[in-house]
Automatic annotation (TrEMBL):
One of its GO terms (cellular component) is membrane. This is Amino acid transporter. GO terms for molecular function: monoatomic cation transmembrane transporter activity. It comes from Natronoflexus pectinivorans. Pfam families: AA_permease, PTS_EIIA_2, TrkA_C.
Length: 706
C-alpha cells in the first residue's frame, strides 16, 4: 500500500472504548426504551440485556478478523477478503448506508434536544452539527477521538448518577411518593415470547457501535490487544447501563405513558435529582442526551466515511475516494459521507430507521460469523489473528442462527428494505466493479480441495498486513538474530550447492534430516511474491522436533544466481545476501511474522551495501537489530562502565528487562551466559525495552561504542 493511502495509527484502548461506547449511547437510551416497550411491556429492560448477550458471537468474530486484518472498511473488508468482492460490495454499501442512517438519526436528536434551550428549527441545528463534525474528522481521527473521549466520560458520569440516584430513591428511601407499584411490572411480558424477541431485534441497533470499531481498525495502535479488549469493555459497560437505566425508567414511568414517551430518560429524571436546585437535574440529563447524540453522530461520521475509502482502495468505488490528506484523513470519503448524511436529514423521516438499520446489520453479522469459519477452513497461514474467538465453530454457528431468527421477527418492510440494498449492491458490482477487480475471497482457498480456483494474491496481501502489524510479544526475533550463524562466501558456487551446504549445517546442529530441509527450502508458496527483493533471498523451512527458530545468513560479494518468479514473470537474480530460517513446525505463523520483520529490515534504503560494508559478526547483527531496543558499550577503565569490568554478567546492576546479548572480545563475537566475566575493552551489546535502553544510553552516552 502506498504511503499516501495509509492512515495514521493514533487510537489507543481508551479511544476504542469511547468510539464504541459513544456510538451506542444515544437513541438506544434516550429514545428507544419507550417505543420498544410497546412490544413487550415492562420486560423491555430484559430485552436490552438479551440483545447484549446475543450480539457476543458477532463481537467475538469481528474482533478475531479485525486483529488479523486491521484495515479500514470493517465489515466490507472482512467480507470481501473472506467471501469475495460481491459480498464485500453488498456488505460495504449496506453497512455504509445503515451507519449513515443511524448517524443521521442521532444528529437529528441533537437538534431535538437543543430545541429545549433555543427556539430554532431542529434540522437547522442538525445541519450545523454535521458541518462541525465534518471539520473535526477532516482534522484527524485523534482530534475526533479527543472530543469523543470528553463526551463519553461526561455521558457516563451523568447516566451513572441517574442509575444510582434512581435505585436509591426508589428502593432504599421514601423520596419517591407514591412508590412504584406492581402495576409498573404487570404483566411483565405483555406479548409473550414473540414480543420479547421482536423487542430484542428492535433494540439491536443500540449495540451497533461495536461494528464501528472494526471500521477504524487500521488507525488503532496495538490492535491485537486494544480491539478485543476495548470491544468487550464497551459491551459490558453499555449492557449494564442499558439494563439498569431502563429498569429505573420502567420503575418510575406509568406503563401507558412509557410506551408513548419519546424522551423517557428526561421524564424519569423529573422525579429524581431532588438534591439539585430548580429542576437542574432535567437540564443536566438533557445536556447528557445531547452529548450522547453528539458522540454517536461524531463516531458515526468517522467510521462510516472509512467505507468508501476502503472500497475505493479496492477499486469497488471510484479511485478518488481513497486519497488521504497530509493530516492522514480521507477527505473525499468524509465529504461524500457528510453530504449524504445532510441529504438524509433534510429529506427523510426518522420513523422506522432503527428497525431497518438493525435488520441489515443482523444480515451482516450472519456473514461475519460465516467469514470466520471460512478464514479458518482456508488454512491461509498468513491469516494470523492476535485474538481467537472462543468456542469455535459453535460460537459462529450460534451467531448465524440468532441473526436469522431475529431478522424474521423484524417484519416484511425491514426485510424488503434489506433485500433492496442487496440488489442495488449486486447491480453496482456487476456493472461497475466486476471488470475492475481480479481477486477472490478466502472461500476459494477453503474449496481448493474440490478443485476450485484460488486467488494467489490474497496470501500475499495478508503477508503485507502481517508485516505492517509487526512482531507479536514473545516472538524470539532478537534472540534468533543474536544466535544466527553468519558466513561470508568468497568463491563462486551455485544456488543448489549453497542450499545443500546450509541444509547440511542445520542438519548437524539441529539433528534433522538434510533432504527434508532441502526440499522445503526449494519449494515455493503463495507468499513468495511478498519476499522477492532485489539481491536478497529469504528461504524458510519448518520442522518437528526443534524448540526454537534458527537463522543462517550468507553474504557473498560476487553473488549467486537464483531463479525467481513474481506472478507470471520468471527471471534470475544475482543474490548477494541469503537468509535461511528454520522454525518449529507448530509455529508456522510465528515464522511468517519473523519473515515479515526481516522483509521490513531488508527494505531499508541501501540494505545490501550496508550488509557488504560490515566485516564483524557483531556489527552485522547490530545492524539487523537496529532500533530503539539496543545499545553497544565498550568497557574502558576510568569511565562510568568501569564498574562492569571483572564482574560476571549475573552480578551487574542492570534493569530487569534488558539483556546483554553479545560480547565482542579480541575480534570474536559470542553470546554470553550469566557466568561470563567481562574484561576491559570488551564491547557488549545490550537489548531490552526502549525505556530502559534510553536510561542506559543517558548513563553511558559518552562511552557508546561507535
Amino acid at each position: 500500500m502506498s504511503e499516501k493511502k495509509k492512515l495514521n495509527k493514533e487510537l489507543g484502548l481508551f479511544d476504542v472504548f469511547t468510539i464504541s461506547t459513544g456510538a451506542m449511547f444515544s437513541s438506544g437510551f434516550f429514545l428507544l426504551p419507550g417505543l420498544a416497550s410497546q412490544y413487550t411491556g415492562p420486560s423491555v429492560f430484559v430485552a436490552y440485556l438479551i440483545a447484549g448477550i446475543l450480539i457476543m458471537p458477532a463481537m467475538f468474530s469481528m474482533a478475531e478478523i479485525a486483529t488479523a486484518l486491521p484495515r479500514s472498511g470493517g465489515a466490507y473488508f472482512f467480507l470481501d477478503r473472506g467471501l469475495g468482492p460481491l459480498f464485500g460490495t453488498i456488505g460495504g454499501l449496506g453497512t455504509y448506508f445503515a451507519l449513515m442512517f443511524k448517524t443521521a438519526f442521532a444528529i437529528i436528536g441533537i437538534g431535538a434536544y437543543a430545541s429545549f434551550f433555543w427556539d430554532v428549527p431542529v434540522r437547522t441545528i442538525a445541519v450545523m452539527a454535521v458541518l462541525f463534525f465534518t471539520i473535526l474528522n477532516l482534522i484527524g481521527a485523534k482530534k475526533t477521538s479527543g472530543m469523543q473521549n470528553f463526551l463519553v466520560v461526561f455521558l457516563l458520569l451523568v447516566v451513572g448518577t441517574f442509575i444510582i440516584d434512581g435505585i436509591v430513591s426508589i428502593y432504599l428511601t421514601d423520596i419517591i411518593k407514591p412508590a412504584p407499584t406492581k402495576e409498573h411490572f404487570t404483566p411483565f411480558f405483555s406479548d409473550g415470547f414473540e414480543g420479547v424477541i421482536t423487542t430484542v431485534g428492535f433494540v439491536f441497533v443500540s449495540y451497533l457501535g461495536l461494528t464501528q470499531i472494526a471500521s477504524v481498525a487500521e488507525e488503532i495502535k496495538n490492535p491485537e490487544r486494544n480491539i478485543p479488549l476495548g470491544m468487550l469493555i464497551s459491551l459490558l459497560v453499555t449492557g449494564l447501563v442499558y439494563f439498569l437505566g431502563v429498569f429505573v425508567m420502567v420503575s418510575l414511568i406509568n406503563p401507558e405513558d412509557f410506551s408513548r414517551d419519546l424522551a423517557p430518560a428526561a421524564t424519569a429524571t423529573s422525579q429524581l435529582f431532588r438534591w439539585l436546585p430548580n429542576n437542574s437535574g432535567a437540564y443536566i440529563m438533557t445536556a447528557a442526551a445531547m452529548a450522547a447524540f453528539a458522540s454517536t453522530g461524531n463516531a458515526g461520521l468517522l467510521s462510516s466515511s472509512r467505507y468508501p475509502f476502503a472500497m475505493s482502495r479496492d477499486k469497488l468505488f471510484p479511485g478518488g475516494f481513497s486519497k488521504v490528506s497530509k493530516l492522514g484523513t480521507p477527505i473525499p470519503a468524509i465529504l461524500l459521507t457528510a453530504s449524504l448524511i445532510l441529504f438524509f436529514i433534510l429529506v427523510l423521516s426518522e420513523e422506522g430507521i432503527a428497525k431497518l438499520a438493525s435488520t441489515f446489520q443482523l444480515f451482516i453479522f450472519m456473514l461475519i460469523n460465516f467469514s470466520v469459519i471460512v478464514f479458518r477452513k482456508s488454512k491461509i497461514e498468513s491469516y494470523d489473528p492476535g485474538y481467537h474467538s472462543p468456542l469455535y465453530p459453535a460460537m459462529q454457528i450460534a451467531g448465524i442462527v440468532i441473526s436469522f431468527i431475529l431478522i424474521i421477527y423484524m417484519g416484511w418492510m425491514a426485510i424488503i428494505f434489506s433485500a433492496l440494498i442487496i440488489l442495488v449492491a449486486a447491480l453496482w458490482y456487476k456493472y461497475y466493479a466486476r471488470i475492475k477487480v481480479q481477486r477472490e475471497g478466502a472461500i476459494f482457498h477453503w474449496f481448493a480441495l474440490l478443485g476450485k480456483y484460488q486467488h494467489p494474491e490474497l496470501e500475499n496481501e495478508f503477508m503485507t498486513i502481517l508485516k505492517e502489524k509487526g512482531l507479536r510479544h514473545g516472538d524470539p526475533f532478537d534472540e534468533t538474530i543474536i544466535r544466527s550463524r553468519i558466513t561470508h562466501i568468497h568463491k563462486p558456487t551455485s544456488f543448489e550447492k549453497l542450499v545443500e551446504d546450509v541444509s547440511d549445517t542445520f542438519s548437524t546442529e539441529m539433528h534433522i534430516h538434510k533432504q527434508e530441509l532441502i526440499r522445503e527450502f526449494m519449494a515455493t508458496s503463495p507468499i513468495e511474491p511478498a519476499l522477492i527483493i532485489p539481491e536478497v533471498s529469504l528461504l524458510y523451512a519448518k520442522h518437528d522436533g526443534i524448540d526454537h527458530p534458527s537463522l543462517n545468513i550468507i553474504i557473498t560479494e560476487q553473488g549467486i544466481h537464483k531463479p525467481v518468479s513474481k506472478g507470471r514473470v520468471s527471471s534470475q537474480d544475482n543474490i548477494k545476501v541469503f537468509f535461511f530460517l528454520v522454525n518449529p513446525a507448530k509455529e508456522a505463523r510465528q515464522q511468517l511474522r519473523m519473515l515479515s520483520r526481516l522483509v521490513d529490515i531488508i527494505e531499508r534504503k541501501g540494505f545490501v551495501k550496508e550488509m557488504m560494508k560490515h566485516d564483524g559478526h557483531r556489527s552485522i547483527k547490530e545492524y539487523l537489530l537496529h532500533n530503539e531496543r539496543f545499545i553497544t558499550v565498550k568497557l574502558i577503565n576510568g569511565t562510568a562502565q568501569q564498574e562492569m569490568i571483572g564482574k560476571q554478567l549475573k552480578e551487574l546492576n542492570l534493569p530487569s528487562n534488558v539483556l546483554v546479548a553479545l560480547v565482542e572480545r579480541n575480534n570474536e563475537t559470542f553470546a554470553p551466559t550469566g557466568n561470563t566475566v567481562l574484561q576491559e575493552k570488551d564491547v557488549i551489546t545490550i537489548i531490552g525495552k526502549p525505556k530502559s535502553i534510553s536510561q542506559l544510553y543517558e548513563k553511558y552516552k559518552w562511552e557508546i561504542h561507535g
